[in-house]
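Sequence design from tokenized structure. All designs in this work follow the same two-part layout: the structure record, then the generated sequence. An example of the structure record is given first.
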């Protein structure tokens, strides 16, 4: 590998100004820095765990599609991860002289604010939406606001404000749109292809220059914490006070953030976020679209990666079960060496994955279900939006010409210590006619596969029953014998 140049500061733009920081703690959050160091206190701290959205700011980054602004949670976004970005806080919103910004004016006129604590966060989420979609549907507004909580207004006033923003001004005339070219040039000049290293010894952070450099850095620093979107790791710091240093930030690395399809296989780089993966996956594997819409809120989807979801190894991560059901494979890399394994074998036991020291997750390869096959995934939670899985079932089925089950893969989250296949249930289905009777017989086999736990999300009994019934639902969906009901708020409204 060519010698990598090292820079000892991170550079980004904060609102209108260039910032260069040579002293950054590996676990410093953007929120603390904004409020305590820069006295920008419009960005609030509510939960400090990515749930309430009071800390929402925009982060603009250069990507293949140009300069893209996304809402993020400043409370769990690390300062060290911002190299080469444009951070926009609520203080930067401007209207014509003497007037509020269109988003702010709409919130005032439609009574979208009462105590006001959540308001800057809502304003920033709506700002991101309005720039992307000036006349959004109710569904788009709800999706953009999934990660913002308000205890006062009951949301309807905020929804009305959101629908009215464009009557107060045009998104094309917004300063961030008008200045896009200048900001793009300034960010472009910051991208000098260098590795960033700040601090010394254990108290150190590194932003590798690219994926090859990441492999080299990890090789020398096997004990470092890898941080991609920080939607899991952020909470280790803000909630568990864990020492995560030294840290390697891999959020926007060249060579790790691409998603591409070749011959019916979609390869997703470990640094690809949910938002970046959405359009490809929802188009090619339609059942994944509604699932992604229910992972975290918009801010979490803008930061969190599928690679992080897998590497974290949580039994309630939402992407491993559908990816396992789809027969996905995982590429792990150590230095220059790579190995590719079936994803399901990566999960060994609770907290234990098949990942060696100095090895990292480089990509996941997902088979697009061939024509004629059936695939579904269903997530069960207490709330529809921004809730963690109690149980999640994913189903892949191929029927033979005579209507018998030629191939079946069923995987669950929330039912065991790892994301796991329902092998006994699959065995009971294989080769049998795809009928309700076969399915009901197979449902009795769940007890052979799973002994779920009772916790705050669901009781063991509930999980067991829900898991069985998801198979019945899949049968109804695929056989046309019953019309499954999908409840969503916009339909109910
Ligand atoms: C409010 C909120 C809501 C959430 N809702 C959901 C939800 O609905 N469903 C769900 O599944 N999850 C949810 N999560 C959890 C989290 O968003 C996901 O697990 C996410 O995919 C993690 O990705 P990340 O890039 O943020 O990972 P990080 O937090 O950066 O890292 C997670 C783990 O993976 C490791 N890691 C990351 N990348 C690599 C790599 N390339 N190689 C090796 N190790 C790596 C890290 O060291 C760490 O151990 C939620 C989180 C929050 C804060
Ligand atoms: S403070 Fe609640 S999401 Fe950040
Ligand atoms: S206005 Fe009080 S929390 Fe939203």
């Amino acid at each position: 590998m060519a010698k990598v140049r090292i820079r000892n500061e991170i550079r980004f733009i904060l609102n209108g100004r260039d910032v260069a920081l040579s002293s950054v703690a590996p676990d410093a959050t953007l929120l603390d820095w904004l409020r305590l160091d820069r006295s920008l206190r419009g960005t609030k701290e509510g939960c400090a765990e990515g749930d309430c959205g009071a800390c929402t700011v925009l982060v603009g980054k250069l990507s293949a599609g140009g300069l893209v602004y996304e809402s993020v949670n400043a409370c769990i976004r690390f300062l060290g991860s911002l190299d080469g970005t444009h951070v926009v806080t609520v203080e930067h919103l401007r209207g014509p002289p003497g007037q509020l910004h269109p988003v702010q004016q709409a919130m005032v006129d439609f009574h979208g604010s009462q105590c006001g604590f959540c308001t800057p966060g809502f304003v920033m989420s709506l700002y991101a939406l309005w720039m992307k979609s000036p006349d959004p549907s109710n569904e788009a507004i709800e999706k953009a606001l999934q990660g913002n909580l308000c205890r006062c207004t009951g949301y309807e006033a905020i929804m009305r404000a959101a629908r009215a923003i464009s009557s107060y001004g045009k998104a094309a005339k917004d300063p961030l749109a008008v200045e896009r070219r200048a900001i793009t040039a300034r960010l472009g000049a910051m991208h000098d292809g260098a590795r960033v290293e700040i601090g010394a010894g254990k108290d150190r952070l590194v932003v590798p220059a690219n994926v090859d450099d990441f492999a080299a850095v990890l090789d020398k620093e096997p004990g470092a914490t890898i941080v991609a979107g920080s939607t899991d790791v952020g909470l280790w710091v803000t909630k568990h006070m864990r020492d995560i240093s030294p840290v390697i930030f891999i959020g926007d690395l060249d060579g790790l953030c691409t998603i591409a399809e070749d011959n019916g296989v979609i390869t997703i780089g470990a640094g690809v976020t949910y938002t970046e993966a959405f359009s490809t996956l929802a188009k090619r594997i339609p059942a994944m679209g509604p699932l992604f819409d229910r992972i975290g809120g918009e801010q979490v989807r803008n930061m969190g990666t599928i690679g992080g979801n897998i590497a974290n190894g949580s039994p309630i991560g939402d992407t491993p079960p559908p990816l396992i059901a789809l027969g996905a494979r995982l590429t792990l890399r150590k230095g220059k060496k790579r190995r590719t394994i079936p994803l399901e074998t990566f999960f060994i036991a609770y907290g234990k994955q098949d990942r060696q020291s100095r090895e990292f997750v480089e990509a996941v390869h997902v088979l697009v279900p061939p024509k004629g096959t059936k695939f579904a995934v269903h997530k069960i939670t207490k709330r529809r939006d921004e809730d963690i899985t109690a149980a999640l079932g994913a189903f892949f089925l191929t029927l033979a010409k005579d209507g018998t089950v030629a191939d079946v893969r069923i995987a669950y989250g929330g039912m065991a210590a790892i994301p796991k296949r329902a092998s006994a249930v699959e065995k009971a289905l294989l080769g049998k006619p795809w009928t309700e009777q076969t399915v009901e017989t197979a449902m009795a086999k769940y007890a052979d596969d799973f002994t779920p736990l009772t916790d705050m999300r669901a009781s063991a009994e509930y999980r067991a029953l829900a898991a069985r019934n998801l198979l019945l639902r899949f049968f109804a969906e695929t056989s046309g014998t019953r019309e499954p009901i999908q409840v969503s708020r916009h339909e109910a409204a």
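Residues 113-119, 150-153 surround FE2/S2 (inorganic) cluster (ligand 3) (CB under 6 Å). We note this feature because it recurs in several other targets discussed in the main text.
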